[in-house]
Each structure stands twice: as C-alpha cells, then as structure tokens.
Design a protein that fits this description.
rod-shaped, 27 helices, alpha/beta, four-stranded antiparallel β-sheet, 749 residues, binds magnesium ion, 64% helix, Rossmann fold, binds adenosine-5'-diphosphate, six-stranded mixed β-sheet
Length: 749
C-alpha cells in the first residue's frame, strides 16, 4: 500500500487544492448553525434587534443614559451620534423615517463610526437596562415600593410623566460613584436570573424606544431574517460548489492513479516469462489488474473526499459547539464514545471477511475463465452440470461473504441512528432546562445540536474509512506483489549485438533444462548445430521434449545448464528483442488475434507490402481459402481464430511467420492439421522461399522431413539419433520404427 503512494505524486497539486476546498466547505457548513441561531435568537426573539446600540434614540432618553455613564464613555458615545433637529440639513428625509422628530430632537447613529459596535454595546447596555427599568418602575410606583426602599429613595407624589422627569433630573445631581451603586443593584437583579438576561432586557428596551420614535419595527425584523436567510443560502450554494469541485478533483485523482497503476501492472505482466505466469495464474493476474486496482481507486476517492474533510469538520465543530455551550460537551463525548465502541466491534468482525473477498474473486474468475474457454470440451463430455456446480460453489462462497458483511452493516445502521437520536434528545432535554433558566437561548441550543451532529458525522466518516481501508490494503498488497516480481528472464545490462553479416547458425552446447518447480529435467545434454540454408528436424513421441527444445531458442524459458549460441553469440547476452527479431516462430498451438486476416499478417511486420502478404499467403497454401470469400484479405477473424479451421489457422500462422522474412524459422508441429498433399506443396514452396535461412521443424511425420539435411530423434529429453533419413533408417531403431509404420500407412492411403 505504502509503495503505491508514489502513484499519487502527479496528483499532489490536485489533492492540495482539494484540501483547500474542503477547508472552505467545512467552514461554510460550520457557519450555518451559527446563522440559524441568529435567526432564532435575534431575528425572531429579539425582533431583528442585534444589540443594545440604538440606530436612533430620543435626545431626552440619551441624556438619561448619560447619567449612568462615566464622562469618558459619554464622549465616546457622543462622537458616534449626530443630533438631528428642525435646523438639520436633511430634516425632511429624517422626519419621514423618524416621525417623532415633529416634537423632539433625536440622536442618530453615524454610518462611519470611530468605535466598534461591540465596544459601544458594552458601554450602553447597563445604562439602557437601568434607565428602562427605572422608567417601568416609575410608571407604576405603587408596585415597586420595595425596590425604591432598597435604593433608599422616597418618591414625591407626582403624576407619572412628571415623576420620571423629576426623578432623572434629581439623579443628575448625584455624583457618579453613588450612581453606580443604583445601577449595580438593578443589574444584579437581572444577572441573578441568567447570564443572557441583561442583553435581552437591553434589546427589549431598544425595541420600545424604536416604537416611540416611530420606526417600522416589523420591517427591521423582516430585513434581518431575510438578510441572514440570504446569507445562509449563499453559503449553502458555495458549499455545494466546493463539494462538486472536490468530487471532480477526487475523481480525477483516483481515476488517474488507477490508470497509472493498471498500466504499470500490465507492462510488468507483459515482461513476465512463462515462469511468472505459472506462478500467479492468469485468472489472478486479471483480477489484480482490474478488480484490485478498482478497489484502490474507490478508496483513493474516499480518502481525498473524507480523510481530510472529517478532521476539519470535527475540530471546527468542537470549537464552535464549545462556544455555544461549555456545559453540554459531555453529551457529545458519550455519543462519540458509544459510536467508536460500536464500530470497533463491527470492524473486527468484518475484517477477516474483507480479506477473504479478494481471493474469492480470484477463484470465481478462474472458474469462469476455464469454463468459458473450455466450453466445447465441457459440452462434448456432457460436463455442464459439473461445471455449473463448480461455478455455483465459487459463486455461493462469495455471496455468503458479501451477505454477511451487508447484514452486519444493516444491523449497524439502526444502532447508529439510535445513538444519533439519543444525542439530539439529550441535548434538548438538558438544553431546555438551561433555556428555562435563561442561561441559554433557544437558537444557541439548536445550533449546538447541529454542531453535535456534525462532530458525530466527522467521527463516523473517519471510522468508515477504517472499515474500507483494510480491503484496499489487501488489494494494494496483491498489486504490489505483481509490481515487485522480477521476471526470471531479463535482458543483460550491456547487451551484445549480432554481427552485421548474420547467418543464423544455432548451436546447442550440452543443454540441460528443467521446468521451474519440476523434479526431473525435461532435457538432458542436448548437443547439435543447425546450419543456415539447411533444415533441421526434430522427431519423437509426444512428451519427449521436442517443443521444449525449440521454445528455448526464443528464450521463453532460460536453460538450466549449458549454452545456446546463435552465430557464436550466447542468446542470454543479447536483448530479447533483437533475438526474437531474427526468429519466425510458428507455435504448436497457433493463435490468431481478433481482426482481419490482413491485420494478423501485418502483426509480423507493419511495413509489409501487399505483394509480401500475397506471396506469404501463396507459400503457406492459404491462397485458396483466402480467395474463397468475398472479403479476401479483409475476412474477419474472431478472437483466438475460432471462426477458421485448425488447418486454416496453421496456414495463416505460417504465412504470418513468412511475412517477417526472418533468418531463422521455427515450425513447432505446424503442419499436423494439414493433409499430406497440402503438406507436400507447402514444403516445396517453403524450400524455395526460405533459401539461406536456418529452418527448424518439429514434427511427428516422417514424410515431412524425409529430405531434411539433419534429423534429430528425441526420446525422453535425450537425443537418441542424429543424421539424414537414410542414415537414421540404418542406425536408429526408434526412427526406423516410426518411419516404417508411417510410410506404410501413407503408401496404403
Ligand atoms: P513434445 O515433444 O510433445 O513437444 P514437450 O516439449 O511439450 O513435448 O514436453 C516435454 C515434457 O515437459 C513433458 O513431459 C511435459 O509434461 C513437460 N512440460 C511441458 N511444458 C511444461 C511446463 N510449462 N511446465 C512443466 N512441465 C512441462
Ligand atoms: Mg510439442
């Protein structure tokens, strides 16, 4: 997994950019509950009045406030207000807004302020509350005798309006230190009720003042709510844009990484020799380069989207939630703890199943591949039922694992909902008591609930990652296994090159070969030389090692002992490419590729002319077959050449080797599917065409090689006879036995 990290390098900028966007998204989403609490608290409950700083106030009222302010504070406040009376320049427009101007002057808050609203609010809150309370008390003095007794004030018998005027003008003569005693007594009463009570009373006072001035309080409220709501919409929209952008970047990163990994895995597999194919099995290599890479891709996507997002959301949520209320954090902690315990249990139950999943996918691929490619054999032997059972077993195995995992998740879901709803319930329960005690506002409680949800979701996201990660780790390991495997056959560091005057003589010196993992050597002490311009033939019973000998020449396997020389150069000292460039190979099992006849022939040499192709077709005796269809050379070839006969396939396969015009030809049992007549015609044509080339023919037919310059008889991996047909007829029992049995047959037919 760690080793696969290097594939993320080209996408680092994208990932960093995503993290930036996620940061923005998290902050936007975290800001929403705050606005919600403002809408509820300020917008609805406080009628859109945000703080105790009035935008306009009657001059008479302002002067009462000054009584309860120090002189410095008075100057600070005065600096930010302008007095409006009938002499002011914009009097008419002001009058429209503030009808009370008709009979008294007002102070209006300046647009460009010297002091922050927050600071002004601090200065004004207490005076406003005190003045407002005293005014309320003076309106009905008989209900508040106890309060005035506490303040040590005796009221003269006057009507309410005059009483207030008298009272405040009297207060203005009292020194400021004594005034603070009065305001202290009043504010303490409110603070005793609750932390936020003082602010709420101040805001209520401001609203009453606005009504007296004649301000449209409804529109103030509507404006506030609309503004906050609009901002919330805007933020949501921005968050949506961030989400889309991050998804896009994450997809590009994940898909790009997957593409790079897949291409590297494929390149690696291409370089694998037969040894590695035997080791991994083709089915597993297919799963590794497809399904496993897809696992990595989806996890990469999740990592970019969630792993960075969750901590930002979680930490931000915690900070903001604590801002709203410090007393309820333990509810969130309990919920998170319960969820972690829950998910840990699930994790340990599910982990082994996730691990099993990949090897079961391997298994199902293997069975499906075998059944499909062996379909004809399966039908011929009436083994459909058997194959179905085999597939069923693999299928049921993987289904059982997937069902188990899904059931587990299904059970997990309701439990998580229970915890989440329990969390909401707990917050409302405790929050309601705090609201009742006026130590918390309703909107703050609602915001706290939303933050709690965000924190829990952040934890859920992280833990979900821990559940998917193990599966990706398994996949990563499997991919890495392929990537770190060094092919058994490698090019030398300083490759030699074949001499310009390349002849193509092949020499086997004491070659011994054992298949990887086999106990017994397939070939032992093979010695021979195949000369240019001559035909060297290999004959022997099936399984004697003929194919093995010729497969060693293009280095499909490396020999165990001895050496193979071509023109005096050891084949392990040149590159595989330059070696195979010299060889025209017609395999025992001819394989064609999907496309046309032409595309299959051009496979040998892209630059071959039409005449070259035509000539090759003629020599390979495929002319008749090619011209028999209207499409001719453009005739369609299905995957694996399944729509042509075995003999036709062999002939096209031979033609393909001829197009290459190599100095060395290898025919591995390539004429086995041809009738004797075609075989003879092919041999004749070939002899003319191959001229100076070295030709190696593997066959079981004596007639094919009767005229060969050298015949090598192989039995059980050893050379048991070497010479021409006539020589061998006399010296080799095995050869003469094969020959006489076959020639009789041919003559009689
Ligand atoms: P033939 O003479 O019929 O062409 P081969 O050269 O194909 O015979 O096979 C020679 C021996 O090597 C046989 O016993 C066969 O079982 C064994 N053999 C062939 N291919 C492999 C392989 N890929 N891995 C292990 N043993 C093999
Ligand atoms: Mg063979």
């Amino acid at each position: 997994m760690i080793r696969l990290l290097k594939y993320s390098k080209p996408y680092l900028v994208m990932v960093l950019f995503s993290v930036g966007l996620l940061f923005a998204q998290a902050n936007l989403e975290l800001a929403l509950p705050d606005y919600l609490s403002n809408v509820v608290d300020t917008g609805i409950q406080q009628g859109g009045v945000e703080n105790a700083v009035p935008i306009a106030i009657r001059q008479s009222e302002m002067e009462r406030l000054f009584i309860f302010m120090s002189e410095e504070n008075e100057t600070v406040v005065l600096a930010d207000y302008t007095l409006i009376d009938e002499n002011s320049s914009d009097y008419d427009s002001y009058l429209e807004e503030y009808p009370v101007l008709i009979n008294q002057s007002i102070y209006v808050l300046n647009d460009d302020r010297n002091t922050e609203i927050k600071e002004l609010n601090q200065i004004i809150t207490v005076p406003i509350v005190v003045v407002f309370t005293l005014e309320q008390l003076l309106a009905n003095p008989e209900n508040a005798t106890e309060m005035f007794e506490r303040l040590n004030i005796t009221l003269p018998p006057l009507p309410p309006e005059e009483l207030a005027d008298f009272f405040f003008s009297m207060l203005s003569f009292i020194p400021f230190e004594n005034i603070t005693v009065i305001s202290g007594v009043i504010t303490e009463t409110f603070e005793a009720i609750g932390e936020t009570m003082l602010d709420q009373v101040a805001v209520a006072a401001i609203r009453i003042e606005y009504e007296i001035i004649g301000l449209d309080t409804d529109s103030i409220q509507n404006l506030y709510i609309l503004e906050a709501g609009g901002l919330m919409l805007l933020m949501t929209l921005l968050a949506v844009i961030c989400t889309i952008a991050v998804s896009y970047l994450a997809s590009r990163t994940a898909a790009g990484m997957a593409r790079d990994i897949r291409s590297d895995v494929f390149k690696k597999i291409e370089n694998f020799s037969s040894t590695e194919f035997d080791k991994f099995s083709t089915a597993s290599l297919i799963t590794r380069s497809t399904n496993d890479v897809t696992q990595i891709q989806s996890v990469t996507y999740m990592i970019v989207r969630m792993v960075f997002y969750a901590p930002i959301l979680g930490v931000g949520g915690i900070i903001r939630a604590l801002n709203k209320s410090t007393s309820m954090w333990w509810i969130i902690a309990v919920a998170v703890l319960v969820l972690i315990v829950l998910i840990t249990i699930v994790f340990f139950i599910a982990l082994p199943k996730f691990k099993a999943m990949q090897s079961l996918t391997d298994r199902i691929n293997l069975v499906a591949r075998e059944s499909l490619s062996g379909m004809l054999v399966i039908r011929a032997f009436n083994k459909e039922k058997f194959e179905e059972k085999r597939f069923d077993k693999a299928n049921l195995d993987i289904t059982a694992v997937i069902l188990f995992i899904n059931r587990l998740m299904v059970i997990l879901m309701p439990f998580m909902m229970l915890v989440l709803n329990g969390l909401s319930l707990g917050i409302i329960w405790i929050g309601a008591h705090q609201v009742a005690a006026a130590s918390m506002q309703v909107g703050d409680m609602m915001a706290f609930m939303q933050y709690a949800m965000q924190i829990v979701f952040a934890f859920l996201m992280l833990t979900m990652m821990f559940i998917v990660l193990p599966r990706a780790v398994v996949s990563g390991k499997r991919i890495n296994e392929v990537l770190v495997t060094e092919p058994a056959i490698k090019d030398p560091e300083n490759p030699k090159i074949f001499p310009d005057s390349f002849k193509g003589s092949i020499e086997f010196r004491d070659v011994t070969f054992r298949y990887p993992g086999a106990k017994k050597s397939a070939l032992e002490n093979i010695n021979f030389t195949a000369k240019p311009g001559e035909t060297t033939a290999f004959i022997g019973s099936t399984g004697s090692g003929k194919s093995t000998v010729v497969n060693l020449i293009p280095r499909f396997y490396d020999i165990t002992e001895g050496s193979i020389l071509i023109d005096g150069v050891d084949i392990r000292e040149v590159t595989q490419h330059s070696l195979r460039d010299k060889i025209g190979y017609v395999p025992q099992k001819s394989s064609l590729f999907s496309g046309t006849i032409e595309s299959n022939l051009l496979f040998a040499d892209e630059d071959a002319t039409d005449e070259d192709l035509q000539l090759a077709i003629e020599i390979a005796q495929a002319e008749e077959f090619v011209s028999s269809s209207i499409e001719g050379m453009r005739r369609e070839i299905a995957q694996g050449g399944s729509n042509v006969s075995g003999g036709q396939k062999q002939r096209l396969s031979i033609a393909r080797a001829l197009v290459k015009k190599p100095p060395i030809y290898i025919f591995d049992d390539s004429v086995s599917a041809l009738d004797f007549k075609t075989d003879a015609a092919l041999r004749k044509a070939l002899k003319q065409k191959t001229g100076d080339s070295t030709v190696l023919i593997v066959t079981q037919r004596v007639s094919t090689i009767k005229n060969a310059e050298q015949i090598i008889v192989i039995d059980d991996g050893k050379i048991v006879g070497k010479g021409t047909h006539d020589e061998l007829m006399k010296t080799s029992d095995i050869y003469s036995e094969i020959a006489s049995s076959q020639l009789e047959l041919e003559e009689s037919s």
